[in-house]
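User: Earlier you gave me the apo prediction for this protein. Now I'd like the version with zinc ion bound, so I can compare the two side by side. Same sequence as before, with the ligand SMILES added.
Assistant: Got it. Here's the input I'm using:
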Amino acid sequence: MLMPLARGISVLMPDAPKFYPYCICIYIAGEQRAIIDFGAGQRAFNEIDKDSIELGFFTHNHPDHTHSALLFKNISLYAAKEEQLSYRNEKEYFKLRGFEYWKRFMPPGKPLPETPDTTLQNPDIPVEPGFIKIDLAGTITDGQQIELGRGIRLTAVYLPGHSIGHYGFYFEKEGILFGGDIDTTRGGPWYGDGCSNVGQFINSVQRIKEINPGTFASSHRRPLTEKIIPSLDSYLQILLDRENRVYDLLKRPHTIAQLAAYHLAFDYNLFYMEDFWEMMYAHHHVQHLMEIGAVTEVETGVFQQA
Ligand SMILES: [Zn+2]
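And here is the structure of the complex with zinc ion:
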């Protein structure tokens, strides 16, 4: 369903009861037509004239943002320079997702599934789970401005943390910011990839607050026009609470596996991947706490308050 935000700028809601493994996308009708993110699914994208779309931008390379891109035949696609290789090469994609950490963190009895993104098995999603090869026409960088005609201009805003090349898009004149997976959902920030980064996530939320948009659209929640700053604050607080818990636990020495066993973030098994993501969250919190000098590695793989 298309939901207009301003003249020529709409969100395209997935035609599904849940916003995962889908994402909310942006449809822009300037002189040139453009789409931001491609995870709305076939039913939703059938609402628009796909062949008329000339430009496409990815917020980042996660399958719920890319899976329906192949429905667009006349499009030039752009994504972050930082993630460029991961669209082209399966090995680079696995590196981006951090699957090389699997062997380091996971017990031998739980192998990495051959297709880690099994949630994509769905007739409305036009690809099979696993690596999706996408040919990019070029890359985007922070502050880059894109003119689409009819007075519509968007600016790429580098918002890393969720992933290394995570971008938002800002329509300054209209005061609309699309924040991608900085989505103010109840589960809080997600940073389970190899390239995720807690410090960057905190800074990116701060950057959105400084932009102070009048409308904040994001990938898995309906657009907000009020209480945007409090929503961002309570969303980020979930990450900060986890970090404080890790810091408290590190009064005594812990390994990453021991920290993850406290289930800091996930207490359910929906994706098969939660155990792994718990490890990655613990790993990223420890990395951040070491960056700010609050924690040290007392022996190899064992961490404690400094
Ligand atoms: Zn994502």
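For your comparison, keep in mind: The mean pLDDT is 95.
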